[in-house]
Amino acid sequence: MIGSTTTEFLWLENEGELTGWTQHSISDGGADVHFRNAQLGSYDVFIVGEFFAESLTVYYVAGNDWASPDANVQRIVIDTPGQIFDVYVDDFNRDGRYEVLATVYDGDEGHVYIYDIPADFLNDPWERRSIADEFFANFILLGQSMTPGSPKPFYPSEEYEEQTTPDGRQVKPWISLSGDDDGKHYILVPVSEDADDWTYEKNILVDTGATTSGKIAIADLDGDGYTELIAAGYSIGKLYVFTYAP
């Protein structure tokens, strides 16, 4: 990217009026692209992927009093894996504990990491696992490219979502993934239902053949119980629609 960057992390408060939102600054710098709000123990936190700072961070306030003008916002760095485009919080292996998924570009290739959230998230290390890699960004003249982009877990059908494992857990979701500046879209499929197996099969949903793909929207468009994926082809100017209906 060209030029300097200035970022601010803030929340907006509507006091009941039809127009006008009061801005409350959380921090200057750091947060820039994507973040997720989560409840970790007794803390209401923001898990942030800081693209320019190349850090996965957590912002929290003692007592969760975010609205206080005297709120002492704390920022802790969990990891510095590279440029983080997006983060997503979910229980990806359906074992009753949440994880954080981060899409990361290290300057050479892209990765998808999943982090365990420890019970003492402020002091204990967050274990990192790679579930997909070897994403390579296309060249962009007078700009910076990166890959991959935004993820989203989903099930291919209502029937599949209702299935359970022999030990009573819900089956794992699949993960849709934008390749962003590699021009592709992907589906990451878990190879087993073992809660300790973090192996995924990386499948190309569509190769747009152009520089940048875009995001994927997911819905059951016609109400038949099967999932549709609507994938953007940003650079090529196309929209791709896929269905899991037979």
Automatic annotation (TrEMBL):
Q: Mind telling me which InterPro entries this protein's record contains? A: Integrin_alpha_N (IPR028994)
**Name by which UniProt lists this protein:** VCBS repeat-containing protein
Q: Which SUPFAM superfamilies match?
A: Integrin alpha N-terminal domain
- Superkingdom of the source? Eukaryota
